[in-house]
Amino acid sequence: MPEHFLIIGAGAVGLTSAQALLQAGYRVTLVERGTSGQEASWAGGGIMSPLCSWDYPEAVTRLTERSMGLFPDAMDELHAATGIDPEYEPSGMLVLPPFEDQRAATWCSAHQVEMQRVALSAHLPGLSGEGLLLPRVGQVRNPRLLQALRRHVELLGGTILENHEVHKFNIENNRITRLQTSRGNLSADAVILAAGAWSRTLLGEHAMTLDVRPIRGQILLFKFDAPPFQNILLQGSLYFIPRRDGHVLVGSTLEDAGFDKSTTDEAKSSLLSRIYALFPHWREQPLVKHWAGLRPGSPDNIPTIGRHPVLSNLYANCGHFRYGVTMSLACAELLVNEIEARPQPLSCEEYRWL
Description:
This protein is an alpha/beta fold. The chain has 2 domains: 4-84 and 142-212 and 299-351, FAD/NAD(P)-binding domain, CATH 3.50.50.60; 93-136 and 213-297, D-Amino Acid Oxidase, Chain A, domain 2 (2-Layer Sandwich), CATH 3.30.9.10. It contains 8 helices and 17 strands. The strands form 3 sheets. An 8-stranded mixed sheet has the order 4-5-3-12-13-14-11-15. β8 (175-181) and β9 (184-186) form a beta hairpin. α1 runs parallel beside α5 (142-155), α1 (12-23) runs parallel beside α8 (324-339) and α3 (58-82) crosses α8. The longest helix has 25 residues, at 58-82. The two termini are 22 Å apart. Residues 5-336 form the FAD dependent oxidoreductase domain. This is Glycine oxidase ThiO. Pathway: Cofactor biosynthesis; thiamine diphosphate biosynthesis. GO terms for molecular function: flavin adenine dinucleotide binding; oxidoreductase activity.
């Protein structure tokens, strides 16, 4: 049984994996190419649900539903342990038309997920028609969550090595013996790959069937004196996330642009036109910020979790696409269970590294 783990990547998935392993009694060192929690985990919106769960395969929703159930207590515990409030908010998500009413109702009924048909005018004055309210959907404020996770890992005795870019894996007898990094060699009993969009590139020929690639997403940020609405709003692929302090995140794009994190005027214009079509008065609202992040794209949004088929001391926890933060607690749970050969709380066949 390994005693010391090196985790490559200190985003939400790497940090929650480290937290779970430290709480189970292991030694953990996180190896981060840049600064902890500053890539896709920081750039995302923090919605604790797929945008519409009925549009995703069961392999995705069983992970997100598991994680959604863990988040409320976990966020309370994280806040108490670190003094940093991740701002978990059970804000609910209001789906605006057009939507597939019957498909949504069938999925929610089968999965015992509460769904309410509501008059939009009761939630958004000026809009008419009917929407679907999913009251259980929550949100976190990603930067604060990442600060709290980092602090908790440090309090639990974990080590975080920033600006350590991994260049090469030294392999002997189908085991990783050392990581060659930009600041020297590192070794441990086992390695966990949680490097987001960079995961496949890092492994090179050892990636085998791991299919993870960068997918750029761009988000706009607005600021109001007070939150203009309570619920997360979703219309098609466009979402609005209201924060407690009046900030509203609006996103996002899906772009196959390689490792280019730059923002574009085209994406900004496209998002603004959709925003103004729904809320014309937002034309008078100043845009505060515009940023982009690189999601770890994977087929059907299904992550890879578990041991490498050849390298016996390498594990993966990567390829979560849009839902790394959302899935993070459940994926960390599955990873530790895999390492310790314990029964899993759900079927894991689709997540294996084949």
